[in-house]
Design brief:
mainly alpha, single chain, 148 residues
């Protein structure tokens, strides 16, 4: 009975984690603006404009993830470009002091690993020219065995 109870609790916990990862873009945007407000002391006007920017970013990122036709490399590249665009738009709304703090936040952000291509990319191999000896080879003298 105890094992059944623990299994049920584990299953509920796993389901909760699964649904927690798929938060809607509005919640993600609110959470990000809240964090930025704490770190950058944003004004109410900045919060509103940055919320709009972050919300658009979250929606676009969700659309990218839903597009299964892209290769993992293309998806990672698109996410990076989207993040760079979003960062630039947010910087436009910040004061000079806040921009410095935001640059620090960006630099501390973990980098998403770009997936390696499934087929290894090898550079084209050029035919090697036959090696020509620089000096004529000299005949080797027979060596005498050691110990005689």
């Amino acid at each position: 009975m105890k094992k059944l109870f623990l299994t049920g609790i584990s299953l509920l916990f796993a389901l909760t984690l699964t649904f927690a990862q798929d938060a809607n873009p509005e919640d993600k945007a609110k959470e990000k603006v809240t964090k930025l407000t704490e770190k950058l002391t944003l004004t109410d006007e900045q919060q509103t404009s940055i919320y709009d920017i972050v919300l658009e970013h979250a929606k676009a990122k969700q659309a990218l993830k839903a597009d299964a036709s892209q290769s993992p490399e293309a998806l990672a590249e698109a996410k990076n470009r989207l993040q760079e665009t979003t960062d630039a738009q947010i910087k436009e709304k910040l004061s000079d002091e806040q921009k410095t703090l935001y640059d620090r936040i960006i630099s501390e952000r973990p980098k998403e690993a770009t997936p390696t291509p499934t087929t290894p990319m090898t550079p084209p191999v050029e035919p090697a020219e036959p090696a020509q000896p620089a000096e004529p080879a000299q005949p080797m003298e027979p060596q005498q065995p050691m110990g005689e």
